[in-house]
Write a structure and sequence with these properties.
Alpha-D-Glucose-1,6-Bisphosphate, Chain A, domain 4; single chain; 7 strands; seven-stranded antiparallel beta sheet; 30% strand; alpha+beta; 185 residues
Length: 185
């Protein structure tokens, strides 16, 4: 379990990154962390996910609230200092196995995020997260890769009842890693 939860996301095709994480279950508990605002706020962003296709998937990001650590926002992301908000549209809703919604892009081009949950032995749950339609800008790809890597690390910590490290310090280190991965591809 430990190694899978630290692996980098894989760019499976142009504009698509995929992560796999093995999480402590049960599957309904993990589903709640994907869909319930108060739990989603602990690792990703607060906001309701309407329980139907065509519903709204809100994201209220406040990265400073993801950890107790004092973790300054890097200059590059100062615009997010006080938080940011967007809403997508639920494309697929099949609890507790599949959630897919649009994700607002910087240029108005929505990408798509899919969460798939698969029960595994010993009450574990395999989470497969796929983010598609990201385009080909290496800066965006490295930022998104680092963002999901960091957010998923915080999710793993919460599910294992561990205090997470600061988002921005982890993200900054991971962004360098994803930049390196992309430049060597």
């Amino acid at each position: 379990m430990h190694d899978l939860n630290k692996k980098h996301g894989v760019f499976t095709e142009a504009g698509t990154i995929q992560f796999k994480r093995l999480l402590p279950g049960p599957i309904e508990r993990v589903w709640d962390y994907l869909t319930k605002s108060e739990l989603k706020a602990k690792w990703l962003a607060a906001g309701d996910v309407e329980t139907r296709e065509g519903g709204k998937a809100e994201q209220y990001f406040k990265h400073k609230d993801l950890s107790e650590e004092d973790d300054p926002v890097p200059e590059k992301y100062k615009v997010m200092k006080d938080g940011t908000y967007f809403a997508g549209t639920v494309l697929e809703w099949d609890p507790p196995k599949l959630l897919k919604y649009t994700w607002a892009g910087e240029a108005g081009d929505d990408s798509i995020v899919t969460f798939e949950l698969t029960p595994e032995k010993d009450n574990k749950v395999l989470l497969t997260l796929t983010h598609q339609k990201l385009g080909d800008d290496p800066d965006i790809l490295s930022s998104v890769g680092a963002g999901w890597h960091t957010h998923l690390g915080i999710l793993v910590d919460h599910l294992n009842q561990k205090a997470p490290k600061g988002f921005w310090s982890a993200h900054t280190a991971m962004e360098k890693e994803y930049t390196r991965i992309l430049s060597s591809a």
